[in-house]
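ugh ok fine here u go
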Amino acid sequence: MVWQERVEQVVMLTNLMEGAKAKCSQYWPELETDANFDIFTITTVDERHHAYYVIRKLNVTHTTINENRVVTQYHYTAWPDHDTPDPLCLLLFHNHVTRTKITRHKVPTLVHCSAGIGRTGTYIAIDALCEEGQHRSEINIAEYEQYKTIFLTLNEMFKAPAGVQTEIDYQKSLQLAKRDHHAFVSTVKKEFQKLLSIRHCYSENDYKMALTQASTSIRALDQYALFLTSSVPERENYINAIPLPSFIHSNAFIITHYQTTGNSVDFIRLITDYESDIVVCMEPLCNVEFSSDGPWSIEIVEPTLTLTQDYSQTASQFLSLVSFVQSVKTHNPITVVSRDGAALCGVFCAVYNLIQQLTMDEEIDVFSGQTPTNTTS
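structure:
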C-alpha cells in the first residue's frame, strides 16, 4: 500500500506493546539494519528520539525493479491506552509532522494506530479542523468520540500558533534586534504577555495536596506531583516537586525548592528514590541553611572548586552552566533547585530544551518551548 500510493509520510499513533497487549507488529528494522518483506527491503537509516515521539527515515527498496524511495515515519509514543493524550504534546507532534511535510508530490499521508479508528480518526480530525479553523476562524465537530482530545489540542493550536525558526532565521532576527533594540524589547514583551494570557487557569481543587503539605506559595499541581517511596519515621510521602520533560526525554528533570529547616531529609529521599545523580542549584548554597537531619550519611568524595569573580549573571555564564550539565551523561532525571522551585528552574529547563531542539532539528521555537514548564500554580 505504501508503495502503491507513493506514501512519503507515515504517522503512527500506537506503541508496539501497551501494557501486556500487543498493539502493532514492527514493520521496520532497527537502526542501520535491513528487513525483507517479500519483494521489498526496508532499511532504517536515521532515528531521532524526542520526548513524546520518534522520527525515523526508512529506505524502501522494490527489489524486483530495483527502485528506492524514502519514507518518513512519525511515531507518537505517549498516547495512553484508553485515555486522552496531553493536548500540548500532541500539538507539538502535529506541528512537526506538518512543517516537515514533503510538498513535491500530491500524495496522501498514511495515518494508523492499532484498530485504525479512535486515535487515527482523532488525529485526522485535528489536522483537518486545524486547516478549517485557520481559514474560516471557526470549526465544526460532528462526533463526540474523542471530542475532548480534539477540542483541547485545537485550543492549544489556535491560541499559540507555532513560531518555529531555522538557526539562520533566528540569527538574522538577533542581528535585527541589535540594530533596533527598542523594537526587539517591545516584541519580546508582547510575546511574554501573550504567554501569560494563555496560561491555564487552575483552582484550589487542582492542588489540594500542596495546599495542605507545601510551605511555599509555589505549589505543584496534583496531577504532576511526585511522591517519596523511601520510609523515614514520622515523615510524609509528599514533597513539593514535579517532573518536567526535556526536548528528547519525557522525564528529564525534577523541579523543586530548597527545603526548610527540618525537611532536608525529604530532599535526600527525593534524589535517592528517583535515582537523580545530578543536582543543579540555581541560587548560592551559602544562602541556604545547613541541616543534618535524617538517616543518610553524605560525604564529599571529590570536591571541585571553581574561583569566579563576583560578576552579575550574564547570558554567557548561564549558557556555560547549561552546556556543562548537558555534557554530563546520565539516563536519570536531573534535579533543579531554587528558592521557590519555579522561576529560575523554569529558565534553566527552557534554555536546556531549546539547545536540544536546535542541536537535533536545527530549528527553534522559543515561544512554544516555554509552555511545558507551566505545571505549578
